[in-house]
From TrEMBL:
Organism: Corynebacterium qintianiae
Gene Ontology molecular function: transmembrane transporter activity
Pfam families, sorted: MFS_1 (PF07690)
Domain of life assignment: Bacteria
Protein name per Swiss-Prot or TrEMBL: MHS family MFS transporter
Entry's Gene Ontology cellular component terms: plasma membrane
Length: 452
């Protein structure tokens, strides 16, 4: 191997490490809030409005941040196409870490009155803007560094960051439940994982600061003739059907995934089924580990069988997981809770690991960051934003979990149907000199793109 090849391989390893670890830190912050919303904030921040209303409002604050993810995606996508992916990643990391740390220092309603939940909501909005801006830049930095035959694997790096973040946040809360059991957890134990985010933020900064910019962006920066003057305008003028298609695929995954990442299962199993909080948190942690492995496997295997085929298989497995979820959870038996969450996590990974490379291969280079970020953010609103709130409302209205299962199954079937409409684009050229190829051949009724 020549010195140039060794340097290139080193740059690629650094890029995938930085995007994976940095994204894991971001999602640790984001999912930590979602878990604590149902376990803690419903009582300490919203308790005066009554138990049922407090539950719904606490989950609404989880979903509220998703409404601001498109703002983060619009801003980050625009600037990632204009000034580079790496710069955007540094800004989003600082925003998320600062907001999470401040949440850990907030007073409760008992100490500050209505000002406490207002400050909480503001900081959650900052988290939403940061999360909306993080994903697209991280995925493109990884995928655009990747060899053509390993884009799925490299793109799965930032995707692995999500289950890794869930694993870290659930494990941190489970550990604090041991260190500060009972009332101590409600008094101060929940704060420690939030404040620890400050340490993680500096670790993430140190890891990311040495990463090289995406080679595709560097080529575009050297040849501004291919620079889109208004990336977002071009995106919606020419690729709106593609944005909606990608958003529906991601929404189908997110709707189901936010049963755990949005905190609904944690709250339901502890408050309604009477299971021990620590047991539930460890079960979610185990499912996050399964989700992480499944996500990495899916990215790797999609390089061989294609993004489309892996999605179709994934949604079928996810449908089985949805059908089994509540019948097993409702037994309130710990082994069945583990089995239900782990099996569901495998299905989620099979519909998640290929999303990064799929979206990177969807859009032309000059608008790729805007396209990937905005599609992802819209999908998050359609799917993850209010899934816990909808689930809680369905449970409250019907008195059972059957309606929730129908809701989750409908989302999964939509994802499967839409996946069947897209054309396989695995391996198309990503460089800015091939934008004509990148702009065509997205759906089964169109001619296949030429793979140069």
């Amino acid at each position: 191997m020549s010195n140039h090849d060794k340097t290139r391989a080193r740059e690629r390893r650094r890029a995938i490490s930085a995007t994976t670890i940095g994204t894991a830190i971001e999602w640790y912050d984001f999912f930590l809030y979602a878990a604590v919303a149902g376990l803690v904030f419903r009582e300490l921040m919203f308790g005066p409005i009554g138990p049922a209303a407090a539950t719904i409002v606490s989950f609404l604050t989880v979903g509220l941040s998703f409404l601001f993810r498109p703002l983060g995606a619009f801003l980050a996508g625009h600037f990632a196409d204009k000034v580079g992916r790496r710069t955007v990643l540094m800004v989003t990391l600082l925003m998320m870490g600062a907001a999470t740390t401040l949440i850990g220092l907030l007073p409760t309603y008992a100490g500050a009155g209505v000002a406490a939940p207002i400050m909480l909501v503001v900081l959650r909005i900052v988290q939403g803007i940061s999360a909306g801006g993080e994903w697209g830049s991280a995925v493109l930095l990884a995928v655009e560094h990747a060899p053509r035959n390993k884009r799925g694997l490299f793109g799965a790096g930032p995707q692995v960051g999500a289950p890794a973040g869930l694993l870290m946040s659930s494990a941190a809360l489970a550990l604090m439940n041991i260190i500060a059991p009972g009332d101590a957890f409600m008094e101060w134990g929940w704060r420690v994982p939030f404040i620890f985010s400050l340490v993680l933020m500096f670790i993430g900064w140190w890891i990311r600061v040495g990463v090289d910019e995406s080679p595709v962006y560097e080529e575009m920066a050297a040849d501004r003739a291919h620079d889109a003057k208004n990336p977002i305008g071009v995106l919606f003028a020419r690729f709106s059907p593609l944005v909606l298609t990608g958003a529906l695929i991601f929404a189908a995954n997110g709707t189901v995934g936010y049963m755990t990442t949005g905190g609904f299962i944690q709250k339901y199993a502890t408050n309604e089924l009477g299971m021990e909080r620590g047991d539930v948190l460890w079960a979610v942690t185990a499912s996050a580990a399964a989700w992480m492995v499944s996500t990495a496997f899916t990215g790797w295997v999609s390089d061989y069988i294609g993004r489309k085929r892996s999605l179709v298989i994934g949604f079928i497995v996810q449908a089985v997981g949805v059908a089994l979820l509540f019948p097993m959870v409702n037994t309130a038996e710990l082994p069945k809770l583990y089995a239900a969450l782990i099996f569901l996590a495998v299905g989620l990974g099979l519909t998640y690991g290929q999303i990064g490379s799929l979206f990177a291969e969807f859009f032309p280079a000059s608008i790729r960051a805007s396209g990937a970020s905005i599609t992802y953010a819209i999908g998050a609103i359609l799917g993850g934003a209010f899934a816990p709130t909808i689930a809680a409302s369905l449970r409250e209205a019907t008195g059972s979990t059957d309606a929730i299962t129908v809701y989750l199954m409908a989302a999964t079937v939509i994802g499967l149907a839409v996946s069947l409409l897209i054309r396989e684009r695995n391996g198309i050229p990503l460089g800015h000199e091939h934008e004509d190829v990148q702009a065509s051949g997205h759906f089964v009724w169109e001619p296949a793109p030429v793979k140069m």
